[in-house]
Specification:
The complex is a heterodimer of chains A (134) and B (258).
Chain A: H1 4-12, H2 14-18, E1 32-42, E2 49-55, E3 61-67, H3 71-76, E4 89-96, E5 103-110, E6 116-118
Parallel strand pairs in A: 3-5
Antiparallel strand pairs in A: 1-2, 1-4, 2-3, 4-5, 5-6
Chain B: H1 3-25, E1 35-38, H2 64-78, H3 92-96, E2 111-115, E3 119-124, E4 127-132, E5 151-157, E6 160-166, E7 186-195, E8 198-206, E9 215-223, E10 245-246, E11 249-250
Parallel strand pairs in B: 4-5
Antiparallel strand pairs in B: 1-9, 2-3, 3-4, 5-6, 6-7, 7-8, 8-9, 10-11
Classes of the chains: A alpha+beta (134), B alpha+beta (258).
Amino acid sequence: MLSRNLASALLWVPLVALAHHSFAMFDMSKDTTLQGTVVQFQWQSPHSWLDIRVKEDRGATHRWGLEMGAPSALYRRGWRQASLKPGDKVTAVMHPLRDGRRGGSLVSVTLPDGAQLFGSGGSAEPAAPPGARP
Amino acid sequence: MSRVGLRALMLVAAVLALGATVSRAAGLPDWAGVWQVKGSMALLSRDNGRMFVPGTRDDPPFIPRYEHRYQADLLRAERQGDPRAKDSLTDTNTLHCFAGMPRLIATPFRYEFIVTPKQTWILIDKAVRHIFTDGRPWPAADARWPLMLGRSRGHWEGDTLVIETVDMRTDMWADTTPLTLSAHASVMERIRKIDPNTLEDEVTIHDPDKFTREWQFTRQYVRADAHEWPDDPELCGGPDDRNPVINGHVTVQLPDVH
C-alpha cells in the first residue's frame, strides 16, 4: 500500500510535483523546528533557499538547507528579497529530508521582528490547510 | 531590461492584443487575460481524497495489468529523492524540465489564450500549445511521431473550443503521478467560458490499450491578476540549481556540500 507520506505529499502539495521536482524526498507528515542564524538567502527560480546555522544539542554547529518556492509564489505570500539577511536570528519550521541529512522543505519562518512568513514549498498557491482536500 | 527583452515583451503584448481584437472581430469568444487552474494538479480522480485508498479509486480506468504496474510505479516514485534507491522512478517533468500533454491541462503556471479564427495558442509557462482550427488534416502516417505536446487540432461549436490531441509521448508522466498513456491515446477537450471569470475544460481521454473505458474529468481556470508580471519560466540546471538530477535521481544540495 502506498505510504501515508507519499499520499500526503501528492494530496496536499500537488503543485510542487510539477514545479521542477517532486517533494517526495521530504517527510511532509513531520514538522521540525530549528532555531538558527541566517547564512544565506537565495531568492531564485525555480526554488529559493534559506541556509541557516543551527547550534545542536551537543553544542556542535551545523548548516541546514531549507528549500522554498519560486520568488513569485513567495512574493504573493509576503516575502521580499530583503526579508532575510545573513546574521538574522530566525525560528524555522520544516518538513525534514527523509534521508536524515540536514535539510528540509520550509514550512514557515519567524523573523527577528516576530513576523512570520510561510514557505510555499514550490507551490504557486497557498498550501491547503491540514485536513482539506484540494 | 535588455533591448531584446523589451522587444520580446512588446511582441508578446502585441500578439495578445491582436488575439483579443481578432477573436472579437471574428465572433469568437474573448478569453483574454491571465488564468490559473482551480484545484488539484493531479488529474487522476474526481475525488482526490480517495485516490490512494485501495479499491476506491475510479480513475484512471486502467486494465488490471496497467493498474498493477501503476501501483508499483507509485511506490518507486516515492523513492525518487533517495539516491540510495536502485529502483526509484523520477518524475519525467524533473528529468526533462518540461511537462507534456495531458499534464499541461493542470499546472501551477499562468494560462493565456490567444484566440484567432485559424489557430488558438495556449501559453503555459514555457510551453505553447498550438490548436489548429483551420481544418487541416492530420499529417501522413510517416510524418507523425510522438511529441511532448502531441498534435492538436480543433473546431468551434458555438463558444466552445473542441480540441483533439494525438501523438503524445508515451514515456512522460501524464499528471503528477507516474501515469503514462499508450501511443494510441487521444485527448478530447471542450473549453468554454462558464462565467466572466471562469473557463471550464471538460476532458475525455481515450486509451484503448490501457483503459477499460474513457476517462473523463473537468478542470477550471479562474481569472488571475493580469497586472502581475510573469516570473522566470521554470528553469532547471545551471550553477544555482540545488536540485540537480544525478544518475537519474533528483538530489538536494545542502549547504555543507554546496
